[in-house]
Amino acid sequence: MREGLDHWTFVIAAYAIGVAGTALLAGWSWIAMRRAEARRERSREQ
Amino acid sequence: MHGFANPARFLRLARLLTAPLLLGGALIALAALAWGLLGAPAERLQGDSVRILFIHVPAAWLGMGGWSAIAAASLVELVWRHPLAGIGARAIALPGAFFALLCLVTGSLWGRPAWGTWWVWDGRLTSMLVLFFLYCAYVALADAASRDGEGNSRIPAIFGLVGAVNIPVIHYSVLWWNSLHQPPSITMGQSQMAPAFLWGLLAATLGFSLLFGGIVLARMRTILAHAQAEARLRRRAMEAGDA
Q1: B159 near B139, Cβ under 8 Å?
Q2: ipTM field
Q3: Where are the beta strands (DSSP E) in chain B?
Q4: Distance between CA B22 and CA B30 in Å, rounded?
Q5: Is it the case that residue B92 has pLDDT exceeding 80?
Q6: Which CATH class is domain B21-38+48-183+194-242?
Q7: Which of B94, B88, B59, B49 is nearest to B71 (CA)?
Q8: pTM, rounded to two decimals
Q9: What residues of B are in the A interface, CB distance below 8 Å?
């Protein structure tokens, strides 16, 4: 017996998790990099 | 290759590439995903759930490719003592773990409408889950090694090499054992996939790969900047102690 599932619910969930997760990872990596490099510059000036 | 062993030379190149890789990758991946969502046709048997392909397959390739890169960097670190190889492997581990997890989650979301189940303990799914656990263990080992000093960086490098045994197991699992998972649709130089899906999939893989590269470069720059700041602060503290 085949269930009458709405495929779009699963498609939208997969895309939302993929896009949001990748964006969070990329954004967090970029911000962490900028903070670390700013800290390095501050340590040079001190 | 050895020219990039110099962190200053590497940093010059990384500063040039990080933002273009992130931006270019995001644009290409978003365009490919938009095509997957709105442009690609529904498949005869799997219906609209086939659109998950455009996010699931790049995630699987990057999860496996990430560990292959960790293994290669570990070999370079152990054999040639390349100073950036260990940093590179450490930087790859977290995005690799993320894409392995994304592969598992999107696979589960695809499996429910296509197979009628969220999960089966078959060779492909189980070996991919093992890869995710290997990534978690590598992250923990590499963090512990970085806290303990340089001498222990050999332990995550050896772990990175040994864990690579799982990569061919994942790849061949659908051929070695019975599985609900389909066999590979794309092999070296051959594709059984319709062009409407193939080109979109290649574009999505390119976009996510560029993003992966940008994330790895950003994380390498973070690790290097922390190490340089720590070294400078330690040197100052020692000079103050001597005075």
Answers
A1: no
A2: 0.91
A3: 186-187, 190-191
A4: 12
A5: yes
A6: mainly alpha
A7: B88
A8: 0.91
A9: 18, 22, 26, 29-30, 33, 36-37, 47-49, 51-52, 55-56, 59, 94-95, 98, 102, 105-106, 109-110, 112-113, 116, 208, 211, 214-215, 218-219, 221-223, 225-226, 228-229, 232-233, 236
